[in-house]
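Good day; I would like, with your permission, to put a structural problem before you. A protein sequence and the structure tokens that stand for its backbone fold form the material at issue. Thank you for your consideration; the sequence and its tokens are set out here:
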Amino acid sequence: MLTPFDPGTQHLENRLALPSAAHWLGTDELGRDVWTRIIYGGRTTLGMVIAVVLLTAPLGLLIGCIAGYAGGIVDKTLMRITDIFLAFPRLILALAFVAALKPGVESAILAIALTAWPPYARLARAETMQFRHSDFIAASRLTGASSLRIILRHIMPLCVPSLIVRVTLDMSSIIITAASLGFLGMGAQPPSPEWGTMIATARRFLFSEWWVPLMPCIAIFLTSLAFNFLGDGLRDVLDPKER
């Protein structure tokens, strides 16, 4: 049984109600509480962001460290593959991947993950090239450590702080990409309370009941801004040059 706090609760007699004490951000075209749907939709949107980060950050880190440490034909091959992904706008490439699969949250996560890893690989490669000729790397080789062990145990941990900062700063663009896929009907599907989907279903009310499409836009803006501030703070803490 639906509860008043369920994002799917409909009250048609109270549809398109103005923001009030009973409904802080008003109601939508089906009488559903906009505040409740934004809160629940944040779980969907932020869950997609976390899933994308967990998929892309380790992949980009590993590819970049291998390319930077190995050099030669391995580096050239991996970087040319990276350049291919970077040559296309992220949203366009994500739309192509989702269209090849099927609309939905899982497809959107996979599509964004497939398009979001190249910047992390570039960053990890640049960091690795600074360390690969260091004395401690040479000492590890002399002790008989394999290249894979050196990458996993010595180089990758050194690249993690810079990667964390880049991931935090990149979360805002991932949120916007996820919301854009939802807006275009390729991400979460109605009646899911995902922010992009909420904007898409309410855009016809933009010039009349403005609060219905505007509130999800504000949620996207504030969340993206918060992640940018967090990234700036982490950069100040983790980057010795900024201290």
User: Anything to note?
Assistant: DSSP finds nine helices and no strands in the chain. Residues 34-70 form the longest helix (37 residues). Residues 134 and 155 are 10 Å apart (CA to CA).
